[in-house]
Write a structure and sequence with these properties.
Structural class: alpha+beta
Strand content: 15-25%
Strand order of the largest sheet: 1-7-6-5
Number of domains: 2
Number of strands: 9
Bound molecules: zinc ion
Number of helices: 6
Radius of gyration: 35 Å
Oligomer: single chain
Shape: elongated
Largest sheet: 4 strands, antiparallel
Helix content: 40-55%
């Protein structure tokens, strides 16, 4: 009787162990479905190497549990990079190192995928970590400069729309003045004449003679009140 009990218990333990091994094997063989952006793409035919921030890229954890046993791994996917497995150890090492500088996470066709300060990048120029650091910093500096220049141009009143309004060439002024006979097109007055844009510049009107007319300041004000 006791012997039978031991045999049943032993059989049960063997079944559980086999089950655990089988389930871990199937977990290990399992690969996540690639996202549509992660499909491999042909190598670039351009001669110019580039480095881009990859906003699609992410690392997603994936774990296996059986009774008290627990295993974890991570999958990297990037634009043009199908799921790439990282063991728990690799993941921990990379995630600490990317706080200090760019680290290579994966490669796919002609691209290398980098992780730095919680952002992902890819390059197709076989860059080194130092190259990636230099290019990313240069791009950020240029972006900041572009924003500053835009603010300065706006503050100086040099935005394109305002610039165009002031710039009716002298010969166009003379032509319009003669064509309109030197009088207001609306009331015939010869006082305080101004060049009026028939379709306002703000609505896309040009400074060509066909879009210009002479108006006295009173009629011009009335017209802009109507608009
Ligand atoms: Zn008038």
């Amino acid at each position: 009787m006791v012997a039978l009990g031991i045999a049943v218990l032993a059989a049960a333990i063997v079944v559980v162990l086999l089950w655990s091994v089988a389930s871990q094997r199937s977990w290990k063989a399992r690969t996540p479905e690639p996202e549509s952006f992660a499909r491999e793409r042909p190598a670039s035919t351009s001669l110019r190497a580039q480095l881009r921030r990859d906003v699609n890229a992410a690392i997603v954890p994936d774990s296996w549990r059986f009774l008290w046993r627990h295993k974890r791994r991570h999958w990297f996917q990037g634009t043009g990079c199908p799921p790439h497995r990282l063991s728990q150890e690799q993941y921990q090492k990379l995630s600490a190192a990317q706080q200090r500088g760019p680290v290579l996470v994966a490669t796919s066709v002609d691209r290398q995928y980098w992780w730095w300060n919680d952002e992902f990048y890819w390059d197709n120029g076989r860059y080194s970590a130092d190259d990636v650091r230099a290019v990313v910093l240069k791009n950020e500096r240029q972006n900041r400069q572009r924003v500053e220049q835009a603010h300065m141009a706006l503050a100086a009143g040099k935005d394109p729309a305002r610039h165009r309004r002031d710039a009716i060439p002298e010969e166009v002024r003379r032509f319009v003045f003669q064509r309109d006979g030197g009088v207001c097109r609306s009331c015939g007055s010869r006082e305080l004449l101004q060049f009026d844009h028939i379709i306002p510049v703000a609505l896309g009107g040009s400074s060509e003679p066909e879009n210009l007319q002479l108006l006295c300041s009173t009629c011009n004000r009335e017209k802009s009140d109507r608009l």
